[in-house]
Design goal:
The chain has 349 residues and is mainly alpha-helical. It contains 13 helices and two strands.
Length: 349
Amino acid sequence: MAHDDATNTMFTALLEPSSQPNKIGSVKRRVRRSASAPIDFIPQEKDDCAVPRNESIFFNVHPSFRQASLILALYLGVGAICFCLVKDQIKGRKTNEILDAIYFCVITMTTVGYGDLVPDSVATKLLACAFVFTGMAIIGFFLSKSADFLVEKQEALLVKCLHLNKKVGALELMKELETNRVKYKFFINLGLLLLLIAVGTVFLIRVEKLSFVDSFYCVCATITTLGYGDKSFSTKVGRIFAIFWILTSTICLGLFFLHLAELTSERKQRSIIKWVLTRKMTHVDLEAADIDDDGVVSATEFILYKLKEMGKVQQEDIVLLMKEFEDLDVDQCGTISTSDITLAYMDGN
């Protein structure tokens, strides 16, 4: 039963309260002062209400956002050049050749396709086919990164506003943020979507001179990429606005439904966890939790059983992890030391 002994030893070490509180305190201090730890996670004594900045999120997302921006700019640049060269083979309502080329790229890559500008030759049709596939991939990657980046930047501000009249420290804010991250993303994205709908509607009324109903109808047809084409952006100013507005509004709607699905899934998961934690244990549960068949359930076995019930871990995951643990535990003592790791990798080589 080396497998079960190793499991119990590993979990017992984690669960048992230490008899050396001073040692724990020193470890916590070393962790907090670690050079690799983000400095903004340490609460500031001078300002308990300061909103913490999640530096790890910023540095993880920002490079991808920058890379996606360069890819999008390259795509639009190449598209503008290509469609400018074949401008005479594209029919429809035209304003400025460069502006129309970029506008055509945008309505192609977002699959809006109003029909106000359409390919009118074999070459332009094949070119449009190539650009729609590459454009959908690029714009999906770019706007998902940029929207997530903007949403994450606003999450801490939203938490701060919710606790405006309370004296809440940095750690409490971080805990609140992590616990309700999906919910905040959903509501922030909903707010952005409503704002984009309002801005688009007002712009079409003021600039394109459409009625309120036609403006709202055009906005809905655009952000859903339905693009009937009977109402669209036909002026030069309108198409400049459309280049930015269409990009943001179409992906914002997609992210809204994504976050809605995430929120629904999270609530379902939380209800399962609540049910698992509140229901009474039965004899059948004890038998199922007794991994080593010794007639009793240890703390390790209890926790593993509950985690499996919650759907947090699978039996296959536990087996794989224990296999790795046994490979590293060279002396088979139930613990892993530096010498075990050294010997394990030496044997592997």
